[in-house]
Amino acid sequence: MSFDSSPVPALNLVPFVSVDDMMQTVLDIGVEEMLAGIAAYIEEDFARWEKFDKTPRLAAHSSVGVIELMPTSDGEEYAFKYVNGHPKNTKEGLQTVTAFGVLADVDSGYPVLISEMTILTALRTAAMSAVAARHLAPAAADTMAIIGNGAQSEFQALAFQGLLGINKLRLYDVDPVATEKCAANLAGRGFEIVRCASGQEAVEGAQIITTVTADKQYATILTDNMVGAGVHINAIGGDCPGKTELHKDILLRSDIFVEYPPQTRIEGEIQQLDADHPVIELWQVIVGQREGRSSARQVTLFDSVGFAIEDFSALRYLRDQLERTGRYENLDMIADPDEPRDLFGMILRAGAQR
Amino acid sequence: MSFDSSPVPALNLVPFVSVDDMMQTVLDIGVEEMLAGIAAYIEEDFARWEKFDKTPRLAAHSSVGVIELMPTSDGEEYAFKYVNGHPKNTKEGLQTVTAFGVLADVDSGYPVLISEMTILTALRTAAMSAVAARHLAPAAADTMAIIGNGAQSEFQALAFQGLLGINKLRLYDVDPVATEKCAANLAGRGFEIVRCASGQEAVEGAQIITTVTADKQYATILTDNMVGAGVHINAIGGDCPGKTELHKDILLRSDIFVEYPPQTRIEGEIQQLDADHPVIELWQVIVGQREGRSSARQVTLFDSVGFAIEDFSALRYLRDQLERTGRYENLDMIADPDEPRDLFGMILRAGAQR
């Protein structure tokens, strides 16, 4: 499908990538190439961080969950993501998190892409983790512990394999069924996988520890004694107020790297720390203003909560694949009367054609 | 089309109302009934004003325009509108304003409707004006001046005819072509229409003056001498910072009614006044806390800028018509794996089915 083949004038139309289109896109391109591509777009956008309009997400909280809008713009393109978080949904057969997003042209204000973003967010979150780890993890790392083997775990594994060469996984989840699911999904992809009976066992020998659990509460997935010198911690699961995964003592002896401090201080692991506790913004490492890993014994922590620029990058990447994949449909979403002042006449003419 | 007839599980699906669906909806229901229906929903929502989460729109400004997100929620449903404003678009064959919106269920966080909102916003803006005028205009009004005969003018005329019995229109636009367009579109609908050569001529004998021009600058569509005692002014066109239509002296002798003061003080006619100039919130009039029109000689001014709750009301109304009209398609927008933790497995299974 292309813009030109449609009988409707193209100005009306906004390409829409459905859930099925997104799955087919992942299968067409290959998940590894897609993770690498999104990582490259994220790194490119983080390298021009100061060009972006940045704002903490706009959240509407209720007693059972939250609905958020995450907008950002680099002055040329604009993106926002709609995302909810409803932990109780799972019990009702619904998703905890669903998301969709829009990319728009700043010059005209017209939307240029609307996409499902549940799968795309999973991809960009893993790509973001790998981008951070390239700057922060020990260079010789080959083993990653993944604590929490839910929906994000396979994406993390594949991103770290593709971008850092991690081929040994140590998996742990409170529910062994999740670990089996993760291991089965990753079978045949060149990993050496060890199923572990505890978090303690999982971290043994791992140079990278990824925590990606789903409890919406203060939890202690990692205690201080579990974290040895030289480790990189990739903390994904603590991503909203009241939800953390790491014991505070770990934070106190780590160099902490974050996406956007005003948001991370509210949502990340560092909500446990004083508001002025020093953190390093990842973009500063990417542009070379600050050092990433500087010694072999340093504990580095990427306190990831997910920021709007990552969604912007992922939507940009997806838009740039549309022509190649053809995996979209055009939505007739923009009213386009022949004469801009004659919106009512457009309706009258539609009536005359019936 | 119904939710149940689709082969895809309904949880995936979000009804989408395209531009064509919206035009057909207006034609099926009838523009007068639709305006009356949206007005009823707006009045109902304004009557429970205090239940809503309210925030000024979230705007991303550029040198050529603005992209805004307008969210609100009553605790049970959540809505937002995406809307741009690019005055230079017209010269490039594009719309100055395009919009779409989403209604979502607060309990699950799931979107339940996505819709074009260029046409729907035109309808809700006119419905809002008529709701305000029912409380503010002289009871015996039968004549309305419309200064500015662009895309909004016919909707205003039809809303005031349907909800207030206004059958005499006095039209003026700097471009006589716009006036001809408006008069032609309204032919055969029971109006007595006078085409006027100036704003001054248009307001003669009118009990209601609607100003709805499009210049993005401080303008003086109405000067003080043009506004007689007892008139209701429905000021629609001044709706962003730097854009006003009325001379300040008119404001100083009017009782001013607004939607949401924090937004109107930035965007409305009252940006010309001190920040503490007294205004009356329209919802207070609707619930009976404040008086609307209280004397025959009073000049009332509805300083309308458009607020998120009106879009919420319009989307609610539209959602409630879907079953009746069938004018929508279902979008596969929500990822819905059989097992919520198995997003990656869902992709693998899609691959196995190819």
TrEMBL record, chains A, B:
SUPFAM superfamilies: NAD(P)-binding Rossmann-fold domains. Gene3D superfamilies: NAD(P)-binding Rossmann-like Domain, ornithine cyclodeaminase, domain 1. Pfam families: OCD_Mu_crystall. InterPro entries: NAD(P)-bd_dom_sf, ODC_Mu_crystall, ODC_N. This is Ornithine cyclodeaminase. It comes from Aliiruegeria lutimaris.
